[in-house]
Amino acid sequence: MIALELAGVSKRYGLRRALERVDLAIPAGAAVGLLGPNGAGKTTALRLLLGFTRPTLGSVRLRGRDPSDPGSREGLGYLPERLRLPARMTLAAFLRLHGGLSGLGGSALERAVDTTLDRTGLREREHELLGSLSKGLAQRAGFAQALLGEPTMLFLDEPTSGLDPLGVRDARDWIRAARGEGHTLLISSHVLTEVEKVCDHVVIVHEGRVAASGTLDALLLPGESLEDAFVRIVRGARKTPPTTPGEAA
Fold first, then answer.
1. Which of 46, 74, 95, 201 is the most buried (most CB within 10 A)?
2. CB 157 within 8 A of CB 121
3. Helix 106-119 to helix 135-147 angle, to the nearest 10 degrees?
């Protein structure tokens, strides 16, 4: 079963090209690292899959549905790169709000909030205002809302940003647990060593196009790290000028 699909997708903002003729199909249960240099189109791809924006050309499917269909996002947890927390809301109230928006209520919501607070090490912070949290604790709070309710699909954009080494290890454990339960993971990150530890597939985008896609075993040369492969693939893509419409792909 294909969980995420972009078919012939292009996205332009005025004259600026964010994505160009992207074809991508991610199977359910895959843990995929979405990689690329700054401005490559990673966040645009995430926004398209979440239904935050529409493609200029092509089609996007989330669990076989148009992302504008709210049903396509059931059981989906999302941690954005630029996390903006309501400063005057307590952590517990923030989690209850997100749980309610995802369809939880009553005792099920309270159990989900309690479980998530314990899981993310935030139990002692539940009554603190979000605006008082350090950057690392705020990132944990973002992770907590993404993990709330045991989502079967996770989109994580720079998930280890602001975390100390203990927080990075915890985040890795949360991601591995979700992967072990067969959930679909899409992780956009510049920290390639972490991606290599938690993902089994990678997609590398460069200048709005897919430069490489496949399993780690298929993309890495013998003795090569993911960082080495990334540099090799991106530098190779820069030497190959993109085709224009009407030319052979």
1. 95
2. no
3. 140
Q: Which residues of 37-69 are buried (b: 16+ CB within 10 A; e: fewer)?
A: beebbbbbbbbbbbbebebeebebbbbeeebee
Which sequence spans correspond to the domains of the chain? Answer: 1-75+153-169+181-249, 90-151
pTM given for the model? 0.89
| pLDDT tens digits along 119-134 | 999 999 999 999 999 9
CATH class of 1-75+153-169+181-249: alpha beta
In the predicted model, what is the mean pLDDT of the chain?
91
Are 65 and 74 in contact by the 8 Å Cβ rule? The answer is no
Residues 6+ apart with CB under 8 A from 70: none
Asked if 134 contacts 165 with a C-beta cutoff of 8 angstroms, the reply is no
* Percentage above 90 pLDDT, the chain: 82
